[in-house]
Amino acid sequence: MSDQQLKFSPLTIRIKEQIRRLRLNAGYSMTEGSNILGVSRKQLEDIETTRDYGCHLEIELLAKIKVVYNVSIDQLLGELPSDSASEYFVRKRRRQA
């Protein structure tokens, strides 16, 4: 994982990428996508970014995405490891020196 992606777990990165893909496939601009989800354009940029300065995802947002894009939560999550202790679920944190 690159230094820019230390803030998010692999699962969160996957979902953020899925959200962006859903918006683009639906043909929505950032402005249209943000209006539909009830967030600002800046918030949508933060939601879709996988870089260290993006925001974490909230369950309410995922519920809105499910309704707006008619996608199941299972489709958003994709195939998950069977081990709940997997690194896939771990949010990376930077160690302070």
Walkthrough of the structure:
The protein is mostly helical. 48% of the residues lie in helices and 0% in strands. The protein has helices at 10-25, 30-37, 41-48, 59-68, 73-77. It is globular and about 40 Å long. The relative contact order is 0.22. The model is unreliable at 1-5 (pLDDT under 50).
What's the short version?
With 97 residues, the protein is mainly α. The protein has five helices and no strands.
Q: Quick one: overall form?
A: globular
Return the string of H and E elements: HHHHH
Span between N and C termini?
A: 20 Å
Helix content: 40-55%
Structural class category: mainly alpha
**Number of H- or I-type helical stretches:** 5
Mean of all residue-level pLDDT scores = 85
